[in-house]
Write a structure and sequence with these properties.
This protein has about 180 residues and is α+β, with helices and mostly antiparallel strands. About 40% of the residues lie in helices and about 35% in strands. It has 3 helices and 10 strands; from the N terminus they run αβββββββααβββ. The strands form 2 sheets. Strands 4-3-2-1-5-6-7-8 form an 8-stranded antiparallel beta sheet, with no helix packed on it. A two-stranded antiparallel ribbon has the order 9-10. Helix 2 runs antiparallel to helix 3.
């Protein structure tokens, strides 16, 4: 009984707090809930609490959850976001560990070179430490590879499945746009 009540509460909360994202042709984005269709456009209540009317000819896209209405193409879509490259995070972890190892090796070589230069009576840091550049370069390259693989792994892939055309009908008073969410 508790599970049924919890599921019911989640559905009610989702419908109460669901926000639509309206994108205009001027690349403005409004977040809120569509209240009704007025003569000149859509009446929305933004998340800040103000109500406004957006003309239909200015609307480019409407997002509601995983549904998209694209008025530029006249198509409605079901949008699914996936993370198919998540296994690349394992490569990122391995590259990060190797990078840390290479930077530690570089630090050990530098300390050893400084100790040898102090024993020889030379100012530390003035001798040629060409052998320490290889671990430093490997650490930098593997660090960049680690960052790149994490970027690829965590970036979602968006798949749009077309569900049909947005129906537009003519009426004596003007053009009516009907859509279902």
């Amino acid at each position: 009984m508790k599970r049924v009540l919890l599921v019911l509460l989640l559905f009610i909360a989702q419908s109460l707090f669901a926000t639509d994202i309206i994108e205009t042709r001027q690349n403005q984005e409004y977040k809120g809930k569509i209240l009704k269709r007025a003569d000149k456009g859509l009446v929305i209540r933004t998340v800040e609490g103000s109500a406004m009317v957006i003309p239909l000819e200015n609307i480019a896209r409407i997002w509601r959850g995983n549904k998209l209405l694209d008025f530029t193409t006249g198509q409605s879509y079901f949008v699914e976001k996936k993370h198919p490259y998540l296994p690349f995070s394992i490569l990122g972890i391995a590259c990060a560990a190797y990078s840390v190892n290479r930077f530690q090796e570089y630090s050990r070589i530098q300390k050893r070179a400084d100790q040898e230069s102090q024993q020889a009576g030379v100012t530390p840091g003035t001798q040629n430490t060409h052998s320490s550049s290889t671990p430093l370069a490997a650490g930098i390259v593997s660090g960049l590879l680690s960052a790149g693989s994490f970027y690829v792994a965590l970036r979602p892939l968006e798949v749009r499945v077309p569900t049909g055309k947005i129906s537009i009908s003519a009426a004596p008073s003007g053009v009516n746009v009907s859509f279902r969410f």
